[in-house]
């Protein structure tokens, strides 16, 4: 999946990428597989959270919800934008939107909640 993602911009609290829906990422109906959507959403969410949560804290995924609004057909490009909704001492909430590059139509949306935990020192 990482080979299908091209990072456009990384800013504090925001990441923008381009995702190519290759045949390996599709289901039997020719649309992007739901598991691949979840994997990309998780990957982008973690990267986005890392822009605001210091390396001195571990991130634990507490919740990942995805709305599958429409199909993303094989061989299209998707704009994937992740942004921090809220980041506090203990929680960070990220939203990720998947839009067709050609029409900017929203096809998937995701929200992830991370727990920020200090790294244990032994």
Automatic annotation (TrEMBL):
EC top class named in words: hydrolase
What are the record keywords, sorted? Hydrolase
Pfam family of the protein (one): 4HBT
Q: What is its EC number?
A: 3.1.2.-
Residues of the Thioesterase domain: 29-103
Question: Does the entry feature the keyword Secreted, yes or no?
Answer: no
Family in the record: Belongs to the thioesterase PaaI family.
- What's the protein called, per UniProt? Putative acyl-coenzyme A thioesterase 13-like
Q: What is the lineage of its organism?
A: Eukaryota, Viridiplantae, Streptophyta, Embryophyta, Tracheophyta
């Amino acid at each position: 999946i990482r080979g299908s993602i091209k990072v456009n911009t990384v800013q504090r609290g925001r990441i923008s990428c381009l995702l190519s829906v290759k045949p390996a990422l599709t289901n039997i109906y020719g649309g992007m597989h739901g598991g691949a959507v979840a994997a990309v959403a998780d990957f982008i969410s973690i990267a986005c959270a890392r822009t605001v949560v210091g390396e001195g804290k571990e991130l634990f995924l507490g919740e990942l919800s995805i709305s599958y609004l429409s199909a993303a057909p094989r061989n299209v490009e998707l704009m994937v934008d992740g942004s921090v909704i809220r980041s506090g001492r203990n929680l960070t909430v990220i939203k990720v939107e998947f839009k067709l590059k050609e029409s900017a139509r929203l096809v998937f949306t995701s929200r992830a909640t991370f727990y920020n935990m200090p790294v244990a020192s032994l």
